[in-house]
Design goal:
The protein has 322 residues and is of the alpha/beta class. The protein is built from 12 helices and 10 strands. Helix 4 crosses helix 12 and helix 7 crosses helix 12.
Length: 322
């Protein structure tokens, strides 16, 4: 009888140990939702749609992109953060925006640092410093000199308070010792329109959003914000090359899952993302957006999220941005 009890206990223990693995093996048994917390047509939406079909092929189930826009991306992010951690509801997040919002005094309704587990990066998109053609600066050092000569006289537009574009401008001021005047807009489109019209002096905006306008001659691109030159415009030097040593910003998109999602499911999702990112069709689709397809392991994704959160928290602290 005692032997039977020991055998039953051992069998139960083995069953419990195998449970998560068996659950992961059975997953997914229905379509997976990939929530985009911004409207259709934007860069986050594009990143999600580049990967969704290929990830679905890898998983053997449809991956459905669902847009839940509002509050600068926080409505959709909070929805996923509070969803069941079963692998069926994921977030394609704009890492910079979420990290910035987490550092602001008026925090979202969830803790970005603990609410998600990183699955994989998806795409990385360079930003660029652009000025209206009337601004007498042909390079970044000339722009810095203008800003220092008359503090607060150079205006820079952004897609709105707390956006990556806003905080890229705040970081620029911190590392260059300049003081600019921030002009927030409701989106990148209106900011670029006013840059073209000469109502504002400069923006730091995603390179794809600026490229069509640069050909008009009404704006001048001065630098890209990434450590290396952008493949979409290799002749444009970086800020680092022009003497701004501590500046490196990219708009990064990553696939996230609610905290508590089984590691085996996270690993399976990450493997699918990495396989997709290695495909030539995915690389080309990303390049058409001016981005790079850059899938990563869950461990590398976690490190990237931690670094971005810490970096933007420090920028918020130094700049007192709101």
């Amino acid at each position: 009888m005692r032997t039977l009890a020991v055998f039953a206990a051992a069998a139960l223990a083995l069953g419990l140990a195998a449970g998560p693995a068996q659950a992961a093996d059975a997953w997914p048994s229905k379509p997976v939702r990939m929530v985009v917390p911004f409207p259709p047509g934007g860069a986050t939406d594009a990143a999600a749609r580049i990967y969704a079909q290929h990830l679905g092929d890898y998983l053997g189930q449809s991956v459905v992109v669902e847009n839940k826009a509002g509050a600068g991306g926080e409505i959709g992010a909070e929805y996923v953060a509070k969803s069941a951690p079963d692998g069926y509801t994921l977030l394609m997040g704009a890492v910079g925006s979420h990290a910035i919002h987490a550092a602001m005094p008026d925090k979202p309704g969830y803790d970005f640092g603990t609410a998600f587990v990183g699955v994989s990066m998806a795409t990385s998109m360079p930003m660029a410093v652009a000025v209206n053609s009337k601004v007498p600066a042909r390079n970044v050092q000339e722009l810095i000199a203008l800003a220092k000569a008359k503090p607060g006289s150079i205006t820079y537009g952004s897609a709105g308070p707390g956006t990556s574009q806003h905080m890229a401008g705040e970081l620029f001021q911190v590392v260059t010792g300049t003081r600019l005047m921030h002009v927030p807009y409701r989106g990148s489109g209106p900011a670029i329109t006013d840059l073209l019209g000469g109502q504002i002096d400069m923006v730091i905006e995603t390179l794809p959003a600026l490229l069509p306008q640069a050909a008009s001659g009404k704006i001048r691109l001065l630098a890209v914000t990434t450590p290396t030159r952008a493949s979409a415009l290799p002749e444009l030097p970086t800020l680092i090359e022009q003497g701004v040593k501590d500046y490196s910003v990219a708009t990064t998109y990553a696939l996230l899952a609610p905290a508590g999602t089984p590691a085996a499911i996270v690993d399976k999702l990450s493997a699918g993302m990495q396989k997709a990112a290695a495909m030539e069709s995915v690389k080309q689709a990303a390049q058409k957006l001016g981005a790079d397809a850059v899938a990563t392991s869950p461990a590398d994704t976690r490190r990237m999220l931690q670094q971005e959160t810490a970096r933007w928290a420090e920028v918020v602290r130094l700049s007192a941005a709101k």
